[in-house]
Amino acid sequence: MFKANDKTCLILFSAFTNHRGVRFMKLNGNNSGNRIRGNGNVIGSGNVVQTLTQEHHHHHKTNNSTDPNKGDDVIGAAVGLFIVAVGVGWLYVKNAEWVYHYIKLASLVAGLPSLITLAYLLINRSDEVRGTVAALYGVLLSSCVFGLAMYGQTMLDPRIIELSQQSSTPIQFWNGLNSYGHNIVVGCMVGAIFVGVAAIFALFMGVFIALYAFGDGDTEGNGFLRLVNPFRPVRGGIISGFALAFGWFFESGYALQIFSSFSGQAA
Predict the structure, then answer these.
(1) How far apart are CA 109 and CA 111, in angstroms?
(2) What is the pLDDT of residues 87-127, one digit of tens each?
(3) Count of CB atoms within 10 A of residue 250's CB?
(4) Which pairs count as long-range contacts for 171-174, CB under 8 Å and 24+ apart, including other chains?
(5) Measuring CA to CA, which residue among 186, 197, 200 is closest to residue 88?
(6) Residue 144 CB neighbours (<10 A)
(7) 201-239 confidence digits (pLDDT tens)
(8) Which residues touch 65 (CB under 8 Å, ≥6 apart)?
(9) Sorting pLDDT into bands at 50, 70 and 90, what band is 69?
């Protein structure tokens, strides 16, 4: 005989076994109903693993997607710089006569303080060897600036200047040149920049030499002398000399020739 508690236990046991049997059938796919959809979305453990895998791949792809964006930014910046460089080159060639006119004028202005100082020291202070050498060096620098300005102007082919004046856009001008014409434009333009920098440093160096010579080397009481002190011959003169060397290196075409040979070997 079963007591009430025993009957209750039997009823609970039967319900539990029937429930596990139904669930066992569902896990083994014996239920043909609509609960099993796709690749087993109802299965918990497999679904969790699959979800984690999908999330992992999703984040992996998201992290990699940042690299192409950075690459696009770099390409866009490079294209922008190229367009700006072509535009500057077109304006430079189109106005080459004025460019070299002002560089030659700057060389004359830059050499004037050094020339005056040199004459003053030779006449009144012939024993001042250091100042005389510095003033002579300033005159030499300004002369080299003038000479390289003339050299760069002759290296620029008149046909290139004519093409720049006939072209309505920088791209039209650039496409009208061959590789040799590209090298001439780039070399002369970069060379003109270096020569212009040399003229600026030679000018301020000449001002320093003049103030130093006429002020008897009083660097404490002369505010203008302290202002141009960074351009004294041991700094400004050396920088101006290197700028002239690089200017000739580009105007002569040797710089781009060496670069082309190295790029050809690397390719």
Answers:
(1) 6
(2) 999 999 999 999 999 999 999 999 999 999 999 999 988 88
(3) 22
(4) 171/83, 171/86, 173/86, 173/89, 173/90, 173/93, 174/86, 174/89, 174/90
(5) 186
(6) 23
(7) 999 999 999 998 887 666 665 678 888 888 989 999 999
(8) none
(9) low
Return the pLDDT at 93: 96
pTM of the model: 0.69
Of 51-55, 113-117, 220-224, 256-260, which one has max mean pLDDT? 113-117
> HEC states along the chain?
CCCHHHHHHHHHHHHHHHHHHHHHHHHCCCCCCCCCCCCCCCCHHHHHHHHHHHHHHHHHHHHHCHHHHHHHHHHHHHHHHHHHHHHHHHHHHHCHHHHHHHHHHHHHHHHHHHHHHHHHHHHHCCCCHHHHHHHHHHHHHHHHHHHHHHHHHHHCCHHHHHHHHHCCCHHHHHHCCCHHHHHHHHHHHHHHHHHHHHHHHHHHHHHHHHHHHHCCCCCCCCHHHHHCHHHCHHHHHHHHHHHHHHHHHHHCCHHHHHHHHHHHHHC
Which residues are CB-contacts of 226 (< 8 A; sequence separation ≥ 6)? 219
Distance separating alpha carbons of residues 154 and 119, to the nearest angstrom: 33
Greater confidence (161 vs 27) lies with 161
CA distance 72 to 137: 50
Q: Return phi, psi of residue 22, to 5°.
A: -65, -40
